Amino acid sequence: MAEVVLDKVTKRYPNGFQAVTELDLDIADGEFLVLVGPSGCGKSTALRMIAGLEEISDGVLRIGDKVVNDVHPKDRDIAMVFQNYALYPHMSVADNIGFALKLAKVPRSEIERRVKEAASILELDPVLDRKPGQLSGGQRQRVAMGRAIVRQPAAFLMDEPLSNLDAKLRVQMRAEIARLQRNLGVTTIYVTHDQVEAMTMGDRVAVLNAGVLQQVDSPQTLYDRPDNLFVAAFIGSPAMNLFEGTLVAGANGLAVRLGSHDLALDPATVSERSALSAYRDRPIVVGFRPEDLDDPATLNEVPSDRLLPAKIELVEALGSELVVHFGVAAKAAETGDPDRVEEARIASDGEEKATCVARFSPYSKVRSGEDVMIAVNTRNFHFFDPSNGAAIWG
Predict the structure, then answer these.
(1) Residue-wise over 120-129: b if at least 16 C-beta within 10 A, else e?
(2) Which residue from 181, 186, 187, 348 could staple onto 155, CB 3.0 to 4.6 Å apart?
(3) Residue pair 188/33 in contact by the 8 Å Cβ criterion
(4) Helix or strand run (H / E) with residue 175
(5) DSSP conformation letters of 209-226
(6) Sign, CA torsion 364/242/341/225
(7) Residue 177: closest CA among 154, 151, 201, 153
(8) Are the beta carbons of 205 and 31 closer than 8 angstroms?
(9) Looking at the DSSP assignment, which residues form a beta bridge with residue 384?
(10) Rg (CA), the chain
């Protein structure tokens, strides 16, 4: 096992395109770190530089106490798991798992011991004599994991290893990989574009966009205290609702004006964030999670200045909750996420509308097409400076 350190690591291609810019990461011995971001953000390039499959243009990469910028991939003491498994179809499961050891001229008895040990950990004992074509997708993925385990590397590198599996199997396999990593205690760097996967698996999650590290933190901290608009928009499913607004003086203190409607801010939120006073009568970006919205009919009394008028567009019944989509008279904020589609519309009353998403109690009676009032928990509002997207916490 080993610590992996990236010190201002940069990847620049001959045509001038910079895929990764001064990436600083310190991955502790035994840590499970997830690199996440939209397609083309540089996460796989970063992983390939750690593996030695891409040259590092600038910066320093250390594995353990050794600088490995110019070390050949096979000498870096890492094992990589790819999304396509890369199994040899003509070999048995046992031979696939032990192939790297055979190339390294490890004694046959030691290969057999390590293969059996890995197969036991991964519950592959019954299929050791089968060929990859006779296995399920989940079994093939476990064989790929077994091939990495037997090498007993200093670090595992995993590049979207679950992307070829169906939804149900992905959920099962991500739990298996997380449990396996905890049991083995091997430093693991895992790349995915799926932020749910990132949140459920990583000790820490590093969010990248356009080759630049946006924030690295525990999954819960990313969710509760995003550093900027991009992280706020990217982390969470359904995503945070983010709108352009104005901070104004309301009847009971500060309020956020969305379109022509004012929402009173919780006094505790205002007192905790003294920096908000500088934004009075100025544009501001406000964000709120879907779970901070609910049907007032299912709650106790809600103050009228914390109700938002809305027209229900779609109700998705999931059993444990309703995911409710509705139009709100506000302009969606620009987040910088290339995969996020903001739909802006001009309603019949001339106001700009944007879609908002809420999580309602399953006992709510709201229906598509209804005009309703939405209860808003302004205590949990997030605020961002529209000029640079930075979160306002102080």
Answers:
(1) eebebeebbe
(2) 187
(3) yes
(4) helix 167-184
(5) ETTEEEEEE-HHHHHHS-
(6) negative
(7) 201
(8) no
(9) 285, 391
(10) 25
Burial (CB count within 10 angstroms: exposed 0-12, middle 13-18, buried 19+), residue 367: exposed
Strands 344-346 and 352-360: antiparallel
Range 31-70 burial, b when 16+ CB lie within 10 A, else e? bbbbbbbbeebbbbbbbbbbbbebebeebebbbbeeebee
Q: Are 352 and 346 in contact (CB under 8 A)?
A: yes
158-176 tens-digit pLDDT: 999 888 888 888 888 888 8
Write the CB contacts of 23 (distance below 8 Å, at least 6 apart in sequence): 6, 8, 9, 10, 42, 46, 59, 208, 211, 213
Nearest to 210 by CA among 30, 338, 361: 338
Residues 6+ apart with CB under 8 A from 108: none
In this prediction, residue 70 carries a pLDDT of 94
Mean pLDDT, range 243-270, rounded to an integer: 90
pTM: 0.90
DSSP 134-162: GS-HHHHHHHHHHHHHTT--SEEEEESTT
Cβ proximity of 45 and 53 under 8 Å: no
Percent of the chain beyond pLDDT 90? 69
pLDDT, tens only, 283-293: 999 999 999 99
Q: How many C-beta neighbours within 10 Å does residue 248 have?
A: 14
Give the closest residue to 30 by CA, choosing from 181, 201, 180. Answer: 181
- pLDDT, position 94: 95
Rounded CA-CA distance 188/174 in Å is 13
